[in-house]
Inverse folding.
């Protein structure tokens, strides 16, 4: 044994190695983040697959300003109770739902795949951000995305959020199938479902474009404690707003 490699030091190294390995694995799994060297300004540097985060011209989120009123078709929500699994994926709390629920927009059907949350809201309306937003992620038969954004403002307790938060994971990277009733998203939606719409991207790497965004105009209330419970896990998980680059933003009349 080398003189400096004492039994005590060997013991410390043996104890630390598994932790270091775990930390390196966790970093590899969640290598992008919302701040620092792995934050949004550097996403395109982390992987070649993330190049669109910098080169894309239709990126999300955006600051919605001066939207053009239009006779848009209503979003038809066909949501039903579904089995689900909840996970803290290191970037947000995400709920993966069993296939069955869908939306229809102008004859196109998009099936609900998952929903997750951002704190604060990624979208801004006339420069104003909200405490949180829920993104309801859907796909059609061609694997094209449509995301419904439900803005969340401070107010009364939200029974849907309150029930969901009872199953907030204590760990990261592990799916959980909670006991109890299935999840059904209709209670999370505002009564008035007027919306803004534009073409954008995923707001996380790889920032893929050609995503249909449907941002509901009317926010839904959540309580301060409900917001704080999420913020304790993800204090800031919002990508900054991106340039509009000449895109048209419409709003239903």
């Amino acid at each position: 044994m080398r003189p400096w490699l004492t039994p005590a030091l060997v013991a410390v190294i043996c104890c630390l190695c598994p932790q270091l390995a775990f930390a390196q694995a966790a970093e590899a799994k969640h290598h992008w983040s919302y701040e620092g060297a792995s934050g949004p300004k550097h996403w395109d540097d982390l992987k070649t697959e993330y190049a669109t985060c910098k080169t894309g011209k239709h990126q999300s989120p955006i600051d919605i300003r001066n939207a053009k009123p239009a006779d848009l078709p209503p979003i038809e929500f066909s949501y039903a109770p579904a089995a689900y699994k909840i996970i803290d994926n290191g970037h947000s709390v995400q709920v993966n739902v069993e296939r069955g629920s869908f939306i229809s927009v102008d004859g196109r059907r998009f099936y609900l795949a998952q929903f997750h949350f951002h704190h604060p809201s990624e979208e801004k309306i006339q420069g104003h951000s909200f405490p949180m937003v829920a993104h309801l992620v859907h796909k059609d038969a061609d694997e094209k995305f449509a995301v419904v954004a439900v803005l969340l403002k401070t107010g009364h307790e939200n029974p849907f959020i309150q029930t969901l938060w009872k199953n907030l994971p204590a760990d990261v990277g592990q799916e959980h199938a909670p006991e109890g009733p299935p999840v059904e998203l209709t209670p999370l939606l505002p009564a008035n479902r007027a919306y803004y719409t534009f073409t954008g991207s995923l707001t996380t790497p790889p920032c893929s474009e050609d995503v249909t965004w449907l941002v509901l105009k009317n926010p839904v209330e959540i309580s301060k404690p409900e917001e704080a419970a999420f913020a304790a896990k993800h204090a800031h998980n919002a990508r900054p707003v991106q340039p509009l680059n000449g895109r048209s933003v419409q709003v239903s009349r």
Observations:
- The chain has one domain: 51-252.
- The CA atoms of residues 94 and 116 lie 4 Å apart.
- Residues 51-252 form a domain with the Carbonic Anhydrase II fold (CATH 3.10.200.10).
- The first strand starts at residue 63 and ends at 64.
